[in-house]
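User: Quick sanity check before I run a bigger batch. Here is a single chain. Can you write out its predicted 3D structure?
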Amino acid sequence: MKWRHTVVYVIVLALVAGYYYYFEVVKRKEAEEAERASKKVFAVSKEAVQELVIGQKGKEPVELVRTDGAWKIRKPLETEADGAAVESVVSTLVELEKERSVGKVPEDLKPFGLDKPELTLRFRAGEQWHELRLGSPNPAQDSRYATRDQGGDLFLVASGTWGVLNKGLNELRRRELFTFENDQVTRLIVAWDQGAKVELKRLQDGDTWQAPQDPQKKIKASKVENVLDQIRWLRAKDFVDTPGTHRGSGLDHPAVTVTLHLKGGDQRTLQAQEPAAGASVLRALSSELPFVVEVDKDFLEELPRSLHDVEDRSVFTADSDAIAQVEWVLGESKGRVVRLKEGEWGRARQGAEPEQLKESWRVRSLFWEWEDLEYEGKDPKRQKPKDKDLARLVFRDQDGGTLAAFSWKRLPEKDKPETVVVWTDQGEALLVKAEKMEQVEKKLKDLIHAS
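Assistant: Done. Predicted structure follows.
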């Protein structure tokens, strides 16, 4: 009969567990959701909001409308809006909760700063318009007095929402100057007011760029992509003009005009002036925006002024993944490291197996330094000296074949020259900035100490 008692115990236990789950979990969750719902100021979803009006005290209201899923500013001027900024306002608005109810709305709203609200937000969800009015902070300065729609109560909302909701016209305007993607660009033209011009076109393979005025010159694709990135990432810091004119903005005669030809025949242009002395911004005009804007002045330094700026002047052109051995001579130090497996290197030893490096990443770090190294020019007259004190670095493949080899005179401790001659294994003399070679020597010394 024991099994009958066991069944009874199981049934009782199941009933107790069900009772606990229903009343302690389900009911508690429902109660918490009901409590949160009762605190919400508006019972609408952000997807339902199609129009929004933000009125700051003493300023002209900003009217926005959602059209085909995108927000646009309708008044006080017509332009595109910063979708993320507007969505942030809408999300905060529909999720807004009452911190505490103060009571019925009094006839005299002046003590609460609501006779002339500091901020008024009206929005349409479906066919219904709603309104939120924010007044003065409470004595504790952690909340603000508020009312909503018609009638209702006077309540407090957290002060933290003020910064999100209190947005002016310029904070809601689109700030991106361009919306293209790099792979859409087929031709780039940078024309300077002094006559310098850089023109580049993308070849059919999609990865190679060519200068029509000098087709034999090798163009470094990563440099062109960086220029496109800098243009694409441009954002307005401020708006300084009215639609339809840039008179007096310094853009009647721009310092530089950038033209982008896109797939499908589309075209984009950017005009920019030189920054004023001591200024951190410069004025620019994008063909995608009808207003002159201010952007960071450092952007101008990213634009090429000659083909030299986008030319592939890489000192190191070998495939770093093919490197299996690295040999060096640096002063009294001579050595060799070999690749053990992916990401692991070892110090070569005479008649013994390589000793694994504890810091194999230093080899990769040396590769990165060489991959970024560029020469400023070439000096055909500089012959490689027969000097035993030359520093030397050799990269070999798995079979010991030479992929690349370089020699140079070590940098002096003082009075460093502006450039250093680096000789390739073919005897070509490349002029490299001394500060860059200093970094190379540092990486090599780090590897030597690690091995």
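The chain has three domains: 46-172, 182-309, 320-450.

User: Great, the batch can go ahead then.
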